[in-house]
Amino acid sequence: MRIILMGPPGAGKGTQAKVIANHFGIPAISTGDIFRANVAGKTELGVEAQRYMDAGEYVPDEITNAMVRDRLAQPDAEPGFLLDGYPRTLAQVEELDGMLADGHPVNAVVVLTADSEELIARLLQRAQIEGRADDTEEVIRRRQEVYTEQTAPLIEVYAGRGLVVEIDGMGEIDAVTHRIFDALESQAG
Questions:
Q1: What is the pLDDT of residues 106-146, one digit of tens each?
Q2: What is the mean pLDDT of residues 1-17?
Q3: Which residue out of 2, 71, 88, 179 is catalytically annotated?
Q4: Distance (Å, whole) CA 179 – CA 139
Q5: Contact at 8 Å (CB) between 4 and 83?
Q6: What is the mean pLDDT of residues 172-187?
Q7: In what order do the strands lie in the sheet with 28-30?
Q8: Which of the following is catalytic: 13, 71, 122, 179?
Q9: Annotated catalytic residue: which of 2, 71, 122, 143?
Q10: Is 2 a catalytic residue?
């Protein structure tokens, strides 16, 4: 199973990614987690990525594409994977298509939807709990704008391929998970 998980920042992608990946026995590959690990380790990539993340901007495609290509080449991703946070631009969709030109295309694109003001409140609360310096209200609002400008058009591309399942991302975690699995079963059915 090859799944892309999309949705605005704070929609619960990270939480759902772990559950979905575990269910299908595939790795959840989160560009955000990889970026944060590189930032914490002060790697060359991390230092460069930090500048963009602090401003609420996306890390440039060249850096992100190379990182994802390396990750998808690892043995645990052979039977499938769940991508969380990639692709985020039309150029990244083309890059991913090239990476998957081996005849194993994406099976589904799960899009979590949610009210933007509720998401901002959710992210501010998470920032307090987790001490995440990158989650100021200004940066959160900018990330929401960037998502709408750059990522939302990808949903149209994947919808044209018949891959999109939209899921209401608000509510109890288990309820959202059940909605996702029901939708994936319906699509595969």
A1: 999 999 999 989 999 989 998 889 887 777 899 899 989 98
A2: 92
A3: 88
A4: 30
A5: yes
A6: 93
A7: 28-30, 81-84, 2-6, 108-113, 164-168
A8: 13
A9: 143
A10: no
Known catalytic residue: 71? no
Specify the higher pLDDT residue, 141 or 43. Answer: 141
pLDDT at 189: 63
Residue type at 171? G
The catalytically annotated residue of 18, 126, 141, 142 is 126
In the set 42, 51, 69, 132, the catalytic residue is 132
Amino acid making up residue 62: E
Q: How many residues does the chain have?
A: 189
Whole-structure pTM value: 0.85
Let me know if 42 is a catalytic residue: no
Could you tell me how far CA 174 lies from the centroid of its own chain? 19
Q: Identify whether 69 is a catalytic site residue.
A: no
Helices 173-188 and 13-24, axial angle in degrees (round to 10): 50
Is 126 designated active site? yes
- Residue 97, pLDDT > 90, answer yes
